[in-house]
User: Fold this.
Amino acid sequence: MPSTDTIAAVATAVAPGQGGIAVIRLSGPAAEATGRSVVHCPGHQEWGSHRVVYGHVIDGEGRRLDEVLLLLMRAPRSFTGEDVLEIHCHGGVIAVQRVLEQVLRQPGVRRAHPGEFSQRAVLNGRLDLTRAEAVSELVAARSRRAAELAMAGLDGGIQAQITALRERLLDQLTELEARVDFEEDLPPLDGEALLQQLQAVRLELEQLVRDGERGDALRQGLRVALVGRPNVGKSSLLNRLSRRERAIVTDLPGTTRDLLESEIVLEGVPITLLDTAGIRSTNDAVEQLGIARSEEALATADVVLLVLDGHAGWTAEDAALLARIPEQIPRILVANKADLPAGVFPHPVDVQLSALDGTGEADLVQALLERCGAAGTDGMLVALNQRQRDLAARAAEALACSQEVAAQQLPWDFWTIDLREAIRALGEITGEELTEAVLDRVFSRFCIGK
Assistant:
C-alpha cells in the first residue's frame, strides 16, 4: 500500500531510433526532491505545481546525460494523488535508460511494479477500478472502435451501469432484511414482484456479459487462417483484404513457402490474416516446413477460411483439408474464382468470392464476423473485460438461484444469501469490495509505467 516510497518508470514506449521524446514518471514523497537532485535548471526558474522547467540531467560526477523538461504535479492534483514528477527526455533507448538509472540511484526511489501508478491512483481515490482498467485498454487498443469502448469505460460508463444495478439490489436487500427483523410490524412483501425485479437485473447482467464477449474481438483481435490446396487464390485473397501486395501471386503451385501475416481492421475488429502454405504432399524440404507451420496455424486460429477453387469444384484434397481443421474451430468455406464458370460442390459453400474483382468480399467480411461472434458491435455502449464478465456472470448466477428459493417458498432470510453474493460480486467489479487480492489480479496485467 502506498506510500512511504517513491516509484519511477518509463511511461512511454521505448525502441531504438524511435520517438523524439520519452517520459520518465515518478510518484511519491521523494519525487520533487529527486528532480531537484538529478536535474540542473539554469537561471531562476520557478518550481511550481503544474509548471514546466528546463534543465539537464547530470550524473554523480556532474556530467550532462540529457537535455530535459520537467513537469511537477504536487498532491493531490496528480494522476496518482501523490507528488508526481515527469521528466521529458529524448527518446530511443540509451538516453532514456541513462536518465532512469540516475533517478533510481536517488534515496527512497525504486523501480515501479507493473500497473503501480494506476494502483496508487485507485487507492488514493483518483480513479475507480473500472476506469483504471479502461486506461490499460485504451493504451492497448488496436482499432478505433476498441478505443471508443475504452473511452466509454474511462468516462465512467461501466461504473455507472454496474453501480446502478448494485443499488437496485441493495434496495431489495434492505427490504428483505427489514422483513427478517420486523415482519410483523411491516406490510406484506410481494414475493412475485420481488422475484421479477431480481430477474430483471439478472437479464441485464447476462446481456452485459454477452456484449463483453463480443467486445473481446475488438480488444484482442482475431487470428484468421487462410487454408486451401495450392493455387486456389489464398494469397490473392490476402492481398485483396489487406489492400496491398503482401504475398507473391503466380500460377505455380507451392509459391507460398512460409506463413505470411497481415494486420487489417474489418468493421472495427483487428484481424491478423495468416496466409498459409498450400497443404499437400511434397518432397520439397522448404515447402514441407511451410506446410508444418500451416498446420500449426490451424490449431491456433479463431476461425479458418477454407479457400476452394470455385471453377474446378470440390476435390478429394479439399475433403482432406476440411477433415484437418479442428472440430472446435469455426470454419468458413469460400469458393474463390466466382468470375469463372462454377464447378460442382457436394456441400453448400458459405461465400462465393472473386479475389480478382472483389465480388462477394462484403459477404465474406459479414460471414467472418458473425462466425466469430464479433458482428453487431456498433450499438454497444460499454464492453466488460474478462475479469468484469466473470464477476457479472457470478452475480447473475446468484440471482438465478432466487427462482428456486421462491419456488420452495423459503423464508426471507434465505433470499438474502444469494442477494448478498450478487451484491458482493458487483462491488468487486467497481472496487466497492476492494481487497489486496483483487488489486494484485487487476494490476499485475498492466505494463510498467502505467
Remarks:
- The radius of gyration is 29 Å.
- The domain at 139-216+382-430 is CATH 1.20.120.430 (Four Helix Bundle (Hemerythrin (Met), subunit A)).
